[in-house]
Amino acid sequence: MLGPVILAASRSDKMRRFVSAAPGTKQVVDRFIAGETVDQVVPIIKDAADKGLEVTLDVVGEDITTPEQAAAARDAYLELIERLKDLGLGTKAEMSVKLSMFGQSLEGGHDLAYANVRPVVEAAAAIGTTVTLDAEDHTTLDSMFAIHEELRKDFPQTGCVIQAYLFRTEEDARRLAAAGSRVRIVKGAYKEPASVAYQDKAEIDKAYVRILKTLMEGEGYPMIGSHDPRLIAIAQELGRKAGRKLDEYEFQMLYGIRSDEHLRLAAEGHRMRVYTAYGTDWYGYFMRRLAEKPANLLFFARSILTKG
């Protein structure tokens, strides 16, 4: 399987240098990364809003090794929120954050990450939007869920992400559905051992459907993170069976992938949110997108062999 190999490469400095220097890299990265600065991403937010779409914005960068870098990541989100406020786009764009960016893996990282993310959540709430805590590898999840629970005491709209391939997720879904949270369900894009995660695609898909059924029948707000046509159709059917209106759940897809499907779902009356990443530290995010879909890897391989 190529996925685990690509995920291993995402942690290789040698591979990072090779990919960054390859002549076709920029062409492919531009497909998945909306830009490097807030100024570059603002027109994309406006265009999405004009098309009836919403966005969730991810300032990419996970290799945080100092508290100062974590504070800089916090400030990048605060800058983004200030721009959204000035442009009146707060209700059309939310934020997705990885707590690793906010210092979670450093000494005292749980408290540091909470201290850094809370002002971002407060600022987002002040302009009428919210924040979703992205899921990372399984060793970080207890900390993420604890921070999520603490934030929801004052900001109940704060969302979180669960990953279908982890054995623990069905129990997490039952807890979160009962709590009435905003929950994004994805298949999962980190290399996880067989002791904690399903390795077979068919088993992951089955788990995804079981978890989605729990969310749809619960008290929360499900956010379906998938590009899989079959899972999208199943989600629509589960929503109907659960008696949910079209604005009582939403679909989420990545920027640059199945853009026609974004528009189709929005035209049908669904809430459709585009996960839009930007920033200069794109490598880890980009490699996980390749790992998720082998076709993306083929597209990239062709491009890096093309001069110019």
Structure explained in plain terms:
The chain is of the alpha/beta class and 308 residues long. The protein is built from 13 helices and eight strands. α1 packs antiparallel against α12, α6 (109-126) packs across α7 and α12 crosses α13. The radius of gyration is 18 Å and the shape is globular.
What is the CA-CA span between the terminal residues?
A: 30 Å
How big a fraction of the residues is strand? 5-15%
Write the element-wise H/E pattern from the N-terminal end onward.
HHHHEHEHEHEHEHEHEHEHH
The biggest sheet amounts to: 8 strands, parallel, barrel
| Overall pLDDT confidence | 87
Number of helices: 13
Strand runs, count: 8
- Radius of gyration, in Å, reads 18 Å
Brief description of this entry?
With 308 residues, this protein is of the alpha/beta class. It has helices at 2-9, 13-21, 25-32, 38-50, 67-87, 109-126, 141-152, 169-179, 201-217, 229-241, 259-267, 283-292, 294-304; strands spanning 54-59, 93-97, 131-133, 159-163, 182-186, 221-225, 250-254, 271-278.
Keywords summarizing the entry:
308 residues; alpha/beta; eight-stranded parallel beta barrel; 13 helices; 52% helix; globular; disordered C terminus
Topology:
Layout: H1 2-9, H2 13-21, H3 25-32, H4 38-50, E1 54-59, H5 67-87, E2 93-97, H6 109-126, E3 131-133, H7 141-152, E4 159-163, H8 169-179, E5 182-186, H9 201-217, E6 221-225, H10 229-241, E7 250-254, H11 259-267, E8 271-278, H12 283-292, H13 294-304
Helix pairs in contact: 1-12, 5-6, 6-7, 8-9, 9-10, 12-13
